[in-house]
Amino acid sequence: MTETSLQCLEVVPQRPTPPVVRPYHRLIVERRLRDLMHLLVLATFVELEIADHLADGPLDVQALARRCQAQPDELERFLPVAAADGLLRRDRMSRYQLTHLGQAMRADIAESLRPLVRACTDEPIAAALLRLPATIRAGSAAAFPAGPLTGRPAAAALVRESGTADREAQIVEALSGLDLGLAHARSLVVVGTDPRLVAALVKAHPHCRGIVFRAPEQEGTAAGAAGCEADRQCTIVYGIITQHLLPPADIYLLIGQLREMDDSSAQQVLSAVREAMNSTSSRCELWVVEGVLDAAPHPQHPWSGSWVCRQVYHLALGAGRIRTHQQYHDLFESARLEQVKSSRALTADDHLFTLRCSR
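^ that's the sequence the OP posted. Answer follows.
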């Protein structure tokens, strides 16, 4: 075979095929941009306290504008938008009244969705979310040297409390239905959880005393605190976990506390619990309940949207993360804690880790 023939058989590199933007690509992007517009509608609806102003009945634009301290012309343009989003309904007298969804934004009702909206739209949270590209370029430590919510306790409280009530209730229900040793425990210390849930957890075990350990800024604001204190089986203690020794107990329980922390802060909290365990008994245990995901979910996975939102939230606010089983193992090991049982699923998202002090 001649040299010319060999040259003819060589594979000629093909030029890369130029990317093609398909119509469904545009639809996906447009849908996500529309989601942002819907969020702005919710944010405006909550910020103007429209649900609270309409709680007593329908109002026309002028009357509502006076209560919202808004310009009537702009408000008149916004209200149909809120109605199209299912928050309002306009009656035959051109007055606006709340729908069932709009009622859920009232501040004076139990399980109000208002904190959930504000947790993504209040300053400085919204500003931090918009600075996500700069945070990724500079790193969280450089972007937030003192923490993005330092000096803003109201915003920090929103981050802690938004969207946790239903999740914690499901976890407590799952814990109550399992034989985990609570029947033999005389005391249970739970960090940072709704006191009503702790009362419900120990209710089935009359011999067990429940203690809720909460941050000082939560004093007087904790949901169900009065009812918990009235129950002799459950009490509330206020303090900073890394500065105050936790009360002695047979079982310590952390529900969703570590996911809002970076590794260094999480290790400090675990070490503080370990110190309390060492001063109590060698047989006491630490139960840690956290969301676990060992790999990024497929776009069609039921938890995909929630995972993306939570990861972006943690990245933008410079703290917290969703960890894998291995990352939790490393975190526990760094705090000199060892698993005594394999982790077990409590809900679709949450796992229970049972730990003791390592020797």
